[in-house]
């Protein structure tokens, strides 16, 4: 058996192991697709949880800043003479 015959035999063996009779690549088995779908689902959940965690953190920070600003405004009104009773004077 010479080298050209050995090469064609190896090529034929490789083609029969990688391709079906029509020459098209074989369909991948369903097992890896199920694993891929499961991994993709888990990663999607992790991303969703991360986004919710960061969003909740930003919301809490914004609420804290709003409360701090309201406290500052309240304390500045109390410091001004007659500043807190401006609305009460309209009813009289």
Quick summary of this structure?
This protein has three helices and no strands. With 92 residues, it is mainly α.
Structural features, described:
The chain is mainly α and 92 residues long. Helix content is 76%, strand content 0%. The model has no long low-confidence stretch (mean pLDDT 76).
Query: Major sheet, described briefly?
Result: none
C-alpha geometry: rod-shaped
The value of Rg in angstroms is: 36 Å
Instruction: Report the mean per-residue pLDDT as an integer.
Output: 76
Unreliable stretches: none
Let me know the number of strands: 0
User: Which oligomeric state applies?
Assistant: single chain
Number of helices: 3
Helix fraction by DSSP (H/I, runs of at least 4): over 70%
N-C termini distance: 116 Å
Keywords: Membrane, Transmembrane, Transmembrane helix
Subcellular location: Membrane
Biased composition (Polar residues): 1-22
InterPro entries: Reprimo_fam (IPR043383)
């Amino acid at each position: 058996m010479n080298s050209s015959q050995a090469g064609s035999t190896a090529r034929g063996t490789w083609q029969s192991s990688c391709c079906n009779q029509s020459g098209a690549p074989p369909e991948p088995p369903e097992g890896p697709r199920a694993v891929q779908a499961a991994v993709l689902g888990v990663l999607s959940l992790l991303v969703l949880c991360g986004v919710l965690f960061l969003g909740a953190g930003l919301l809490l920070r914004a609420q804290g800043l709003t409360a701090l600003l309201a406290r500052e405004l309240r304390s500045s009104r109390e410091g001004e003479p007659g500043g807190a009773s401006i609305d009460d004077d309209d009813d009289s």
